[in-house]
Amino acid sequence: MINDIDSEAYLRMLRIRGFEEAVTRLITEGEVAGAAHSSVGQEAAIVGACMALRNDDYMSGTHRSHGHPIGKGAHLNALMAEILGKVTGVCKGRGGSMHLTDKSIGSIGESAIVGGGIPLATGAALSAQVRKTDQVALTFFGDGASNEGVFHESINMAAIWKLPVIFFCENNHYAAVTPARDTHGQPDIARRADGYGIPGVIVDGQDFDAVFKATQDAVARARAGEGPSLIEAKTYRFDEHCVGLFIKGGYRTQEEMDYYMTERDPVKLMRATLLARGYSDGDLSAIETRAIAEVDEAVTFAKSSPYPEPEEAFELVHADPIAIRR
């Protein structure tokens, strides 16, 4: 391999793509209770941001967050088991699709509440600053969350106290089925950074290199004690808002979807970039085969794992477990 960062980035993007496709298939087969939000199409934004972080840096996610821990290097088995509600999952089957937490790679939690991860990461950054650990925190959120009050409150506090936090917006243009053009006074969320006196950067979210470089700059600034940054990655989700929970569409055109899926697929773009940099088809096929095998192993592991026992329902929820009478 010519560049370890390139090959690792491609592997992580393929893991996310394969993982999300497997989850979609498992929902269709009735293996997953409820619904899930796929991040297919947003892999370059996720991996570019996560690979700019250290393993011990903090990261908070969203409701569309299977890819975030994968992007930060998490093993797939326990993530897949968690989505199937199995006791071998990262939250022992209590969290499910929208609440994956994996502290082994700095993932401090995902939230079904829009914008819910933003104050969590801001608090983690304050903790790192007080403890002088040199860690930074990165919080993912969508374009819809940038209209939540907690976004503005957190970013203002972080700016004043120069907290080591990166506010990372995955702008996929739609809050569920509401176009951003109908809810934002101007199209560039990164410009909101001006109001708080911090850097705001717009990057092509389908381009791993662009996202990686922008996040590296923000991380360096945070570690140097210069405070937060706002990064807006313009990206696109290929699937509907939620797999397994149909919301009537008609909010985007087939022409638009075809454009992103054929011309702006981040996985295809990354493959073309690596070929141009001297990787062979054989090099890339080996990475693709490895990713497929890892996803298959995760599905097998999750399916063969047991569910938590009913009498354990309140364990890990309260400090003093409540005895269950059957």
Reconstruct the topology from this structure.
Elements (H helix, E strand, L loop, with lengths): L3 H25 L14 H8 L7 E3 L6 H5 L4 H8 L23 E3 L7 H15 L5 E6 L6 H13 L3 E7 L2 E2 L2 E2 L20 E5 L3 H16 L5 E6 L19 H10 L2 H11 L4 H24 L22
Parallel strand pairs: 1-2, 1-3, 3-4, 4-8, 7-8
Antiparallel strand pairs: 5-6
Distance, first to last CA: 58 Å
Using only CA atoms, what is the Rg?
19 Å
Order of strands, main sheet, comes to 2-1-3-4-8-7
Query: How much helix is in the residues?
Result: 40-55%
Report low-confidence residues grouped into runs of 5 or more: none
Total helices: the number is 10
Please provide the count of β strands: 8
For the biggest sheet, the summary is: 6 strands, parallel
- Order of SSEs: HHEHHEHEHEEEEHEHHH
Mean pLDDT: 94
What form results from the Cα inertia axes?
A: globular
The amount of beta strand, in percent, is: 5-15%
Structural class: alpha/beta
Give a quick set of tags describing it.
alpha/beta; 326 residues; 8 strands; two-stranded antiparallel sheet
Notes on the structure:
The protein has helices at 4-28, 43-50, 67-71, 76-83, 117-131, 149-161, 208-223, 254-263, 266-276, 281-304; strands at residues 58-60, 107-109, 137-142, 165-171, 174-175, 178-179, 200-204, 229-234. β3 (137-142), α6 and β4 form a beta-alpha-beta unit. The strands form two sheets. It has a six-stranded parallel sheet, with helices on both faces. It has a two-stranded antiparallel ribbon with strand order 5-6. By secondary structure, the chain is an alpha/beta fold. Helix content is 41%, strand content 10%.
